[in-house]
TrEMBL record:
InterPro entries (alphabetical): MFS_dom, MFS_sugar_transport-like, MFS_trans_sf, Sugar_transporter_CS
Location(s) in or outside the cell: Apical cell membrane; Basolateral cell membrane; Mitochondrion membrane; Nucleus outer membrane
Species whose genome carries this gene: Monopterus albus
Main location, first listed in the record: membrane
Protein name: Solute carrier family 22 member 3
Topology of the protein relative to the lipid bilayer: Multi-pass membrane protein
Known catalytic reactions: guanidine(out) = guanidine(in); dopamine(out) = dopamine(in); (R)-salsolinol(in) = (R)-salsolinol(out); tyramine(in) = tyramine(out)
Record keyword DNA damage present: no
Length: 566
């Protein structure tokens, strides 16, 4: 029996048709990077010092030294962010020579006159609402709300895409992102911003996930890994573009408008992006799948000889996606649990290392650029390794490398700045590899009719990790700045070990049914039997008949055993 992979061999596994769709959907991945943000360096504001700074021509650093005391942070003295000297500057005779001023004996109090920020003249979400010090947890909540949207978006769009199709889901996502992005830019207060940001995350994650699955379903097995990695590299491109936009657009609300604008363009994709033929076949819509296959063949300058209308799903698997399908059988359950943990690990460690750049005291724009540049070698390493080695070993090794780097970096003193930075970059390289690999490995371990739902459900742990990451990072860093790195290292090591329990998927066709997962050898044996039937080899046909009978008996016994077990 022919499969859609056989059809792709005829119409072209990655011809002009697929390249055009790939280019369009890659652009959709760029604005996804706009979900990140950092609290800038801040310190107490003293109006009298600000006035004297203007009169004497002091630098921002001079004014900061006269306003806030030095405190011990992770073994080093640093200017306090939430305390200031309690000095009556109006009753004190001062010269403009800051070196003559000794405030070591002055009393210290909490900020009483607001805050000043590192990037003077720039307006961010944090500076507009002064979400620092005792209100700093509100920034953690702000960072987490987009991941709450991701969480519900994964479930919802996973179901909608498998129930109503990939194409309609992309349209709904783009419409939701366009509207919520503009509303977010004009939201008047903190509470409304949280609500709209959650809705925005709901649409952004859903659209990105559906686009990825659609791409994996219209290209041949030999191209899935490449298009998957390149599609995710576009997110890295977005991370690279974001600090450049932020540098030239000083108001965060106008920056939000700039990030949202492309989604209005994406609404037109409904006219240019086809439905997934695999999904159409899983829904018994062979005639529509045939139309798309013929369009592929025409644009790719190929000929379609097989009859798509004769293609059916094996063994009568239900075309209706169900959450229980992900855990009903042993191997599906194992895949789901391991992938869930790896999604969680990837999100916590990835987002944690990205955001840690923002609390390391460097230039946030340069830090963000460096973090993006690190991701490009990760993509090249993936393409090089999985072509020769496979998925499982690079996936596990990247997790272990990330974990080891986090452990080592935690114990390198701040005085060895460059060495610590290099080790942290290796960790960022490793976790970027795992984040990019978990996506396409996830798509390769689920059958077509439940593939979107499988990616959606597993990736919800990514969203839970994203919710937890800001609180883990910023709150634990108050106790010890390196404590989050210890936690990141432990979970990355665990994730690497679990990956070794997954099957290798290099060169394996996308599974069409649950039986393809539970009985992976059956498809190969069936293909051999089809060849024997065509060649009319009577002995081989008889052996295949006996083998198929035994397989069906074994399958029935397995189902009965599972039913008795609950």
């Amino acid at each position: 029996m022919a499969t859609f992979d056989d059809i792709l061999e005829e119409v072209g596994t990655f011809g002009r048709y697929q390249k055009r769709i790939f280019a369009l959907l890659c652009v959709l991945s760029l604005p996804f990077a706009g979900v990140f943000g950092f609290p800038p360096a801040h310190w107490c504001r003293d109006s009298a010092v600000v006035e004297r700074r203007q009169v004497c021509g002091w630098s921002l650093a001079d004014g900061r030294r006269l306003t806030v005391p030095q405190v011990n942070s992770s073994g080093a003295l640093q200017p306090s962010s939430c305390e200031q000297y309690e000095v009556d500057w109006n009753s004190t005779t001062l010269s403009c020579d800051t070196q003559e001023l000794d405030l070591s004996g002055a009393t210290v109090t909490t900020c009483t006159d607001g805050w000043e920020y590192q990037y003077e003249g720039r307006k961010s979400f944090v500076t507009e609402f002064d979400l620092v010090c005792s209100d700093g947890w509100l920034v953690d909540l702000y960072q987490s709300t987009v991941n709450v949207g991701f969480l519900f978006g994964s479930f919802t769009f996973g179901y909608v895409a498998d129930r109503f199709g990939r194409r309609l889901s992309l349209l709904i996502s783009s419409l939701l992102n366009a509207i919520s992005g503009i509303v977010l830019a004009v939201a008047p207060n903190y509470v409304s911003i949280l609500v709209v940001r959650t809705i925005h995350g709901f649409g952004v994650k859903g659209g990105w996930m559906v686009a990825y699955v659609l791409l994996s379903e219209i290209v041949g097995v030999e191209h899935r890994r490449t298009i998957g990695v390149l599609f995710q590299m576009m997110f890295s491109g977005g991370v690279l573009i974001l600090p450049l936009l932020a540098y030239f657009i000083s108001d965060w609300r106008w920056l939000q408008v700039a990030i949202t604008a492309p989604y209005f363009l994406f609404l037109s994709y409904y006219c240019f992006i086809p439905e997934s033929p695999r999904w159409l076949l899983s829904q018994s819509k062979s005639s529509k799948a045939l139309e798309i296959a013929e369009a592929m063949a025409k644009e790719n300058k190929m000929k379609l000889l097989k009859n798509v209308e004769t293609l059916t799903d094996d063994d009568g698997d239900s075309p209706m996606a169900s959450y229980m399908d992900l855990v009903r059988t042993p191997k599906m359950r194992k895949h789901t649990l391991i992938l869930m943990f790896n999604w969680f690990t990837s999100a916590v460690v990835y987002q944690g290392l990205v955001m840690r750049l923002g609390i390391a005291g460097g230039n946030v724009y340069v830090d963000f650029l460096l973090s993006a540049l690190v991701e490009f070698p990760a993509a090249l390493l993936i393409l090089f390794s999985i072509e020769r080695i496979g998925r499982r070993l690079p996936f596990a090794s990247a997790n272990i490398a990330a974990g080891a780097s986090c452990f080592i970096a935690a114990f390198i003193p701040d005085s060895m700045f460059w060495f610590k930075t290099v080790v942290a970059c290796i960790g960022r390289l490793g976790i970027t590899m795992t984040f990019e690999m978990v996506v396409f490995v996830n798509t390769e371990l689920y059958p077509t009719f439940v593939r979107n739902l499988g990616v959606a459900v597993c990736s919800t742990l990514c969203d839970i990790g994203g919710i937890a990451a800001p609180f883990l990072l910023y709150r634990l860093a108050v106790i010890w700045q390196e404590l989050p790195l210890i936690i990141f290292g432990a979970i990355a090591f665990t994730a690497g070990g679990l990956v070794l329990l997954l099957p290798e998927t290099r060169g394996v066709p996308l599974p069409e049914t649950i039986d393809d997962i539970e009985f992976p050898d059956r498809r190969k044996q069936q293909q051999l039997c089809d060849i024997l039937h065509v060649q009319n080899m009577e002995v081989g046909v008889f052996i295949c008949f006996i083998f198929q009978l035994l397989q069906k008996t074994k399958h029935l016994q397995t189902e009965q055993s599972f039913a008795k077990g609950g």
